[in-house]
Amino acid sequence: MSDVNTTMEHTHAEAHDHAHEAHHENFFTKYLFTMDHKMIAKQFLITGIFWAIIGAFFSVVFRLQLGFPDADLSWLAPVMGRWLTPDGALDPNFYNALITMHGTLLVFFVLTAGLSGTFANFLIPLQIGARDMASPMMNMLSYWFFFLASVIMFVSLFIPDGPAQGGWTAYPPLSYLLGHGMTLWLLSLTFFVASTVLGGLNYITTILNMRTKGMSMFKMPLTIWALFFTAVIGLLSFPVLVAGFILLIFDRSLGTSFYLSDLVVNGQFLDKGTGSPILYEHLFWFLGHPEVYIVILPAMGIVSEVLSVNSKKPVFGYRAMVFSILAITILSFLVWAHHMFVSGMNPFVGSIFVLFTLLIAVPSAIKVFNWIATIWRGNIRLNPQTMYAIGFVSMFISGGLTGIFLGNSTIDIQLHDTYFIVAHFHIVMGVAAFFGMFAGIHHWFPKMFGRYMNRSMAYMHFWVTLIGAYLIFWPMHYMGMAGVPRRYYTFDAFDAFSQFAGMNVFITVVVMIVFAFQILWVANFFYSIFKGRKVKESNPWGATTLEWTTPVNPGHGNWPGEIPEVYRWPYDYNKNGHEFIPQTVPMEEGELEHEETPAPEKVS
Amino acid sequence: MTALLIILVIVLVLVVLLQIALTSDFINFIKGDDDEEGRSKFQGSMLMVFLVIGFITLIWSIFYFKGRFLPEPASEHGHLIDMNFNLALFFTGIVFVVTQILLFYFAYKYRYRKGRKAFYFPENNKLEVAWTIVPAIVLTFLIVKGLTSWYAITSDAPEDKIVFEATGKQFAWVLRYPGADGELGALAGRDKVSPTNEVGIDWNDPSSKDDFLANDIVLPVGKPVEVKIEAMDVIHSFFLPHFRVKMDAVPGITTRFWFVPTITTAEMREKLGDPGFNFELACAELCGRGHSSMRKVVTIVTPEEYQKWVEAQTPYSQLVGAYEQKTSRQTAENANVGTALNAEIN
Predict the structure, then answer these.
(1) By C-alpha distance, which of A401, A403, A422, A411 is closest to B246?
(2) Using CA atoms, how far apart are residues A322 and A453, in angstroms rounded to an integer?
(3) Where are the domains of chain B?
């Protein structure tokens, strides 16, 4: 133990020197090729926001097609001229491209890189008491791999045959048959995986090795636990995805047939032997399902923290929260084939995945009950971040419960690939994760930029988004139950599906309003960076964790002096008459740890 | 032009909102003391209003869309699926209502008030155990119910089944029936596919001789039917929403799904009071440009009508002249395959 401490002191001393060097930075080393974890976090965040705007804009365009199939979109010609037919309608190929890009951008570039990239980079060193990441250089590379992936994906939007059109799942043989957009898509995501793996390794190493004195694993805030397990999931599953992609690249470019069997395309016979697309489905979903936990776990961590700080009440059942994240992490690797119940896979295999899929509802339920118990009898400051956190829990309940329908293979026969699943995952990992992200940004904005975000705008944005999200996605459950399939360019051909035309119009109108308010949020974000009210006190929310012991605008190295030492768990709120007790305050004599606190005699 | 105007209006509204927000935050700031209590009260009350109006809207929507979601099942196992759905709906419905009410109500009730102390209540193992075990029991029940049904649905089809073949290709379904002998001829391989042999039938197999291709699916009521699902180019999915049938069509692999239709098209039309009603086949796996146009009509008839329909079909081998010594290309292109009796039945 003493050895470790000596090494740590040593590292701290070095990092301390480094902190003073920060004054000699120029524009490039400060904002672009920076190794400061806080700046890298901001790079991830702003790149994520950029992609979120594009991804959301795409969804507005394809919603226009679904709601108003006859609308003249020629006013969009300046931005997407080639994507329109001469009479101003959206070309079906580009409709497929839009849904593919919407999914890819939001799932990978926004909710993986933008969410866990931002908060893992920003919070891990600050909350565990480290000067920076274990390897700042690797951290910088992680961002620049992501940037490279972004550039390639962006370029793919402008090539003549358009970006990838095979859905974000890119099942072969369809993805085998597609053009250059698909090539760029695969290339971009391969770089993206490199970025995630570099980042993930770094997060895990930092958390395991660089915690400050006294910060045992069970004294870490839940954000860190969540980010830790997120990195573990990413590290174990992303390489499998890249293996799947590389085989697909081989099939497309080198004439192999891992995923292809004899095909007849447009009357042309392709002699491909006996490969199997099901192999790709397995490889894809081995990441694809853990991916949703990569998206939602950081949001869960943020929400636990935000609810506790703003209720001025400890997170209820801290250890249960940690173990349920662990349970989710383990189970997340055992459920992937619930995406393949009707893929032609052996039904017996399917039944095992039913079991694990429904089991994962147990840790999720524990978390929900614990959040509700956290706010129970609190003193809740309904700041914007609290509202977003409450919105998260509400969305997580609504979307999580429909997972119980879909995870049941029997019911999934009807619901698979319909609007029911669209509603389910948009609510549970789309809107909920975004609410977690908004909560986190509002909560840590003062630490990131030394200013506050505009509150009134945040409230407006919250309400429109919450109401709008329910109005958009709730009716989709009904459409899905009737069997309306997803990824349809038009429902005109089918009597059973075209009956929902009115509902599609309604959804599209709401989508446009909600999109406008997302732009309002982006305006608020950038306005507040430069013009927001300045933060005066170093701990504006009255929180206990270490990031609030740094100066208002921490330099590279985070703490100007020694790194503070930690004596207690991060959730001592309203204990012994103190509204909050920072982690750096030593335990008083005779003071009980939280797990030793006797159960209250009267609970209600 | 209208679109441009709409965009302008939206931008204008956003700018106005921006200004209002900036001013209101600025006023708070110069007033000096931030009214945290009033703010929390307002937002808390809004949460309650949202909860109440949300539930009212939810109940209204259920009545409004009643009869449109989960359409009347038209197959035996369809009832099994709907039973599982309703079971899941019952349990999740309870959890949904209770947790949403608690969440919003607590947020309102325990909103910030000056000088009030929150209750230091870090953990309680009894509660944790309770809300671990109760969901686990409920889920076990759902798993057992679900898997029992799953095994019943995916079991082998009865011996007296009628088998037909559906082959997905970009962007249509090719439907092949076994003809009088009740046996589908073997497939010789995709390399045999040609304009005169749409799916690559093995003409050396004697049971191929009377196979016929049909334009639409016609099936007898009350008889077990197994559909043999194939794909020619990319993955498709054979989806009959009313029959609760869905199975992917995967290139290189034969998949199967069997079911028993329980109601004829005529009966269904009468029941719904909709003389134009048709059961439909759709593709449920993104397969490219024409994904949303892979429709076929499914007609369920009485066994007698079905027998008549089968007898009226011309075998594919005969249409393309597979057993005659002549180039059959022209015959195949002109042949109006399998439409002979469809009109009569519809």
Answers:
(1) A411
(2) 31
(3) 38-111+124-155, 162-345
Report the interhelical angle of A384-406 vs A455-481 (nearest 10°): 10
Give the integer Cα–Cα distance in Å for A551 and A566.
Answer: 17
pLDDT classification of B164: cutoffs 50, 70, 90: very high
Tell me the nearest-neighbour CA distance from B20 into chain A, angstroms.
8
- Tell me if B14 and A519 make a contact (CB, 8 A cut-off): yes
Tell me the CATH class for B38-111+124-155: mainly alpha
With a cut of 70, list the residues of chain A below it in pLDDT: 1-24, 598-604
List CB contacts (< 8 A) between A354 and chain B. Answer: 143, 146-147, 150
Gap between the Cα atoms of B215 and B345, Å rounded:
13
Q: How far apart are CA A164 and CA A157, in angstroms?
A: 9
Q: Dig out the tokens for A544 from the structure.
A: 């206990």
Question: Which CATH class for the A35-584 domain?
Answer: mainly alpha
Report the distance separating Cα A301 and Cα A370, nearest Å. 13
Q: Are A366 and B132 in contact (CB under 8 A)?
A: yes
Q: Measured between beta carbons, which residues in chain A are less than 8 angstroms from residue B53?
A: none
Q: What is the pLDDT of residue B3?
A: 67
Say whether A580 sits in a helix, a strand or coil: strand
Alpha-carbon span A76 to A497, nearest angstrom = 28
Residues near A57 by Cβ (< 8 Å), separated by ≥ 6? A515
ipTM value of the model? 0.91
Residue boundaries of the structural domains of chain A = 35-584
* B310/A187 Cα distance (integer angstroms): 52
DSSP string, B101-133: HHHHHHHHHTB--TT---------HHHHHHHHH
Give the tokens for residue A599. Answer: 């159960």
d(CA B79, CA B72): 9
- Look over chain B and give the mean of its residue pLDDT values, rounded to a whole number: 88
For A457, residues 6+ apart whose C-beta sits below 8 A from its C-beta are A520, A521, A523, A524, B17, B18, B21, B22, B25
Using CA coordinates, name the residue in chain A closest to B9.
A516
CATH topology of domain B162-345: Immunoglobulin-like (2.60.40)
Helix (H/G/I), strand (E/B), else coil: B197: strand
Chain B residues in contact with A261 (beta carbon < 8 A): 251-253
